[in-house]
């Protein structure tokens, strides 16, 4: 059985840091906690400051904002967005 894949959407600072607007990510397990996704993305994009960006960002899964990443399990097929804080005004 193939490993599950998700689509990660990068916006604002996350897009600038990675140079991407979206990316397909293969999950290491069929039940993968959203709370671990940040570490996985940082390991795929080291040394671009993504860890700092993720600390102040929120997650969205299938266009729904996530309040608590620890309560969300990714199973594959999801579209996960990194929503960075908007500065300026």
UniProtKB/TrEMBL annotation:
Q: Which domain of life is it from?
A: Eukaryota
GO terms for biological process, alphabetical: Mo-molybdopterin cofactor biosynthetic process
Q: Keyword Cytoplasm: yes or no? A: yes
Q: Does the keyword field hold Secreted?
A: no
**Cited Gene3D superfamilies:** 3.10.20.30
Q: How is it modified after translation?
A: C-terminal thiocarboxylation occurs in 2 steps, it is first acyl-adenylated (-COAMP) via the hesA/moeB/thiF part of UBA4, then thiocarboxylated (-COSH) via the rhodanese domain of UBA4.
Q: Which pathway or pathways does this protein act in?
A: Cofactor biosynthesis; molybdopterin biosynthesis
Q: Which GO terms describe its molecular function?
A: molybdopterin synthase activity; nucleotide binding
Q: Which InterPro entries match?
A: Beta-grasp_dom_sf, MOCS2A, MOCS2A_euk, Mopterin_synth/thiamin_S_b, ThiS/MoaD-like
Q: Report the principal subcellular site.
A: cytoplasm
Tell me how this protein assembles: Heterotetramer; composed of 2 small (MOCS2A) and 2 large (MOCS2B) subunits.
Q: What family is this protein classified in? A: Belongs to the MoaD family. MOCS2A subfamily.
Q: What role does this protein play?
A: Acts as a sulfur carrier required for molybdopterin biosynthesis. Component of the molybdopterin synthase complex that catalyzes the conversion of precursor Z into molybdopterin by mediating the incorporation of 2 sulfur atoms into precursor Z to generate a dithiolene group. In the complex, serves as sulfur donor by being thiocarboxylated (-COSH) at its C-terminus by UBA4. After interaction with MOCS2B, the sulfur is then transferred to precursor Z to form molybdopterin.
What is the protein name for this chain? Answer: Molybdopterin synthase sulfur carrier subunit
Q: Which organism's genome codes for this protein? A: Rhizopogon vinicolor AM-OR11-026
